[in-house]
Design a protein that fits this description.
Layout (H helix, E strand, L loop, with lengths): L14 H20 L4 H13 L34 E5 L5 E3 L1 H5 L4 E8 L5 E11 H8 L7 E6 L5 E5 H4 L4 E7 L2 E2 L9 E4 L11 E7 L31
Parallel strand pairs: 1-10
Antiparallel strand pairs: 1-2, 3-4, 4-7, 5-6, 5-10, 7-8, 7-9
Helix pairs in contact: 1-2
The site of molybdenum atom (MO) has 6 residues, from loops.
């Protein structure tokens, strides 16, 4: 069987393309040695190459922090402080709509934990900062019949969910910053979910909706086989060290 990254099913059945790709990558790595000033361009190349690397080998190269840039859609609209909105609705007494300025004005929590993707890559000690999801839920007034939270994204495709108990953990953030900088577009900015104790697919990028529901509704990847309860080291048949 091909070692296909399940997050990039479009690579399936293209083994020749992969060999060609790895050959190209080898030349790129030589370029770093020969001409360090090309590093920036190489990082940009590796950033996009990692998206298409089903072998995971790009993760071993100096590509600026070990993150991969994932999106299940081919393009995502850009949102900024003027255009971004986050809605909180569903089984709540006080539905709300937040601007970026609204979110920035709320108390911020900073956490430093490892990031672990279910496909294997891990990034040590990454600061995330934002508003505790529990604070937004409390502000909305969750009704007694509620049991879960569903997250939707302005890419128009991705979704995630948590039980209410998971959502209320203090290490679950509506994140505005990563690595002590405002969250950039590629990493899901201006606002993404950050679920520290779970595999990174739980941390929905380009977050636009928080809907309180009765039951957990499986998210995008969960519909395609990932575990709904995504604790790092205790799900998806993996034994990684916990992240939180
Ligand atoms: N909207 C959206 N959120 C997403 C994804 C995605 O494709 N779209 N991928 C998930 C997966 S599988 C991972 S590993 C992380 C990747 O985050 P990064 O691109 O900032 O490294 O985002 C998660 N959140
Ligand atoms: Mo992932």
């Amino acid at each position: 069987m091909d070692p296909v990254d399940p997050e990039h099913p479009e690579e399936r059945g293209a083994p020749v393309g992969r060999r060609v790709f790895l050959g190209t990558l080898g030349l790129g790595a030589l370029g770093v040695v020969a001409a360090p000033t090309l590093q920036r361009g190489l990082e940009a190349f590796l950033g996009s190459a990692a998206d298409k690397d089903p072998t995971g080998l790009t993760g071993l190269l100096p590509n600026g922090g070990g993150f991969r840039y994932y999106s299940v859609t081919s393009s995502v609209p850009r949102k900024n402080a003027a255009t971004y909105r986050l809605t909180v609705d569903g089984l709540v007494d006080r539905p709300r709509r937040y601007t970026l300025a609204d979110l920035r004005a709320l108390p911020q929590t900073r956490l430093v934990r490892d990031v672990q993707c279910v496909t294997g890559w891990r990034v040590p000690g990454t600061p995330f900062e934002g508003v505790r999801l529990s604070a937004l839920l409390d502000a909305a007034g969750v009704r007694a019949t509620a049991g879960a939270v569903r997250f939707t994204c302005f890419d128009g495709a991705y979704s995630e969910s948590l039980t209410l108990e998971q959502a209320r953990r203090p290490d679950v953030l509506v994140a505005l910053r990563m690595k002590d900088e405002d969250l950039g577009h590629d990493h899901g900015g201006p606002v993404r979910l950050y679920v520290a104790p779970m595999y990174f697919y739980k941390s929905a990028k380009w977050l636009s909706g928080i809907t309180v529901t009765e039951d957990v509704r499986p998210g995008y990847w969960e519909d395609r086989g990932y575990d709904v309860d995504a604790w790092v080291g205790r799900s998806n048949g993996r034994d990684d060290d916990p992240t939180s």
